[in-house]
Design goal:
Pfam families: zf-CCHC. With 321 residues, the protein is mainly α. The protein is built from 15 helices and two strands. The radius of gyration is 48 Å and the shape is rod-shaped. The N terminus is likely disordered.
Length: 321
């Protein structure tokens, strides 16, 4: 028979394992969904919370594990409870043997079957295939690899040095080629020296050289969105077509060209002589005959007293007038 005090301690440990504290770690196990809700919820406890269902589960297990049964029976019992088949197959699984066992042994076997953390094979695969993620710095990548190596060393301490060499090699392969050429064998053998040298090189070179091939390729192929200015439907009269250069909507009534008004018309500025002559009454309407005095206007618009005025109109090719 099992020790009652030991049974109480093991029940508390199991209770912590299958309630809210560890529920997320075992969310994919059908047995926990069987007792804590979901599509496979047990019909005997349809409305009970996870904590209440876990207590009922403990009572059921504790009442039946006070018998003697072997390791094979304990393993199969743990499997059946985790797979949600305990209510159906429980009586078939339990056998009476000579060994004396408590639920703490069952819990140990259960954790071997469904470990709380990653398995050794999963950690080995993650470390062997680890690469720098997009935007991940060298320091964070080093820490992530170091944690994987430490977890592997906890599971198999005899091979801890091999795990350390694996993690340093993964970190070295993630460095840019220019960085790798500056790493010595002494620095390669020591993780701290390798990290310090990599950080020193990273602070010396531009940030673009810190990215590995995958990150550089991703940045080079990033799609860019080009926004095209298109007039909306029902555009008003003052909206100009995008294929036409913008011009002022004002139109000069002198030269009939858009972009200015008559006050600023360049044609009137070129004919400033004409305007000055009209203001002074000096223009001869009969194609350049002498006015009342003998003065004339020069090309700068200045009036010279005593000179004959000559019109700026085209002259005749025959007589020169």
């Amino acid at each position: 028979m099992s020790n009652p005090s030991a049974s109480v301690v093991s029940n508390q440990q199991l209770f912590d394992l299958i309630t809210d504290k560890f529920r997320n770690d075992y969310s994919k196990i059908t047995g926990l969904l069987h007792y804590c809700g979901g599509t496979a919820r047990h019909p005997d406890h349809p409305n009970l919370a996870c904590e209440t269902s876990a207590k009922d589960w403990l009572k059921d297990i504790d009442a039946k594990t006070k018998r003697n049964w072997n390791d094979e029976g304990r393993i199969e019992l743990a499997e059946q409870y985790l797979l949600g088949q305990a209510k159906t197959d429980f009586r078939i699984i339990i056998v009476e043997l000579k060994t004396n066992a408590t639920w703490s042994n069952v819990k140990t076997q259960m954790l071997d079957i469904f470990p709380k953390g990653p398995t050794f094979n999963a950690l080995m695969k993650n470390l062997g295939e680890a690469t720098r993620e997009t935007g991940e710095t060298l320091l964070y990548y080093y820490i992530r690899l170091h944690e994987m190596a430490n977890e592997l060393s906890k599971k198999k301490a005899a091979h801890s040095q091999a795990f350390q060499d694996m993690f340093l090699l993964r970190f070295y392969n993630a460095l840019p080629p220019l960085f790798q050429n500056n790493i010595t064998s002494d620095e390669m053998a020591d993780g701290k020296k390798l990290l310090r040298k990599a950080m020193k090189l990273a602070s010396t070179y531009p940030a673009s050289m810190l990215r590995d091939e995958d990150v550089s390729k991703e940045r080079a192929t990033t799609e860019r969105v080009h926004v095209v200015a298109t007039p909306p439907q029902g555009a008003t009269a003052n909206q100009v077509s995008p294929n036409r250069q913008w011009k002022d909507s004002r139109t000069c009534f002198v030269c009939k060209k858009p972009g200015h008004i008559a006050r600023n018309c360049y044609k009137r500025q070129n004919n400033s002589n004409w305007q000055a002559q009209q203001a002074q009454g000096r223009y001869d309407q009969d194609w350049g005959w002498p006015t009342q005095n003998t003065g004339r206007w020069n090309s700068q618009g200045q009036y010279n007293q005593g000179n004959r005025y000559q019109s700026n109109r085209p002259q005749c090719g025959n007589c020169g007038k």
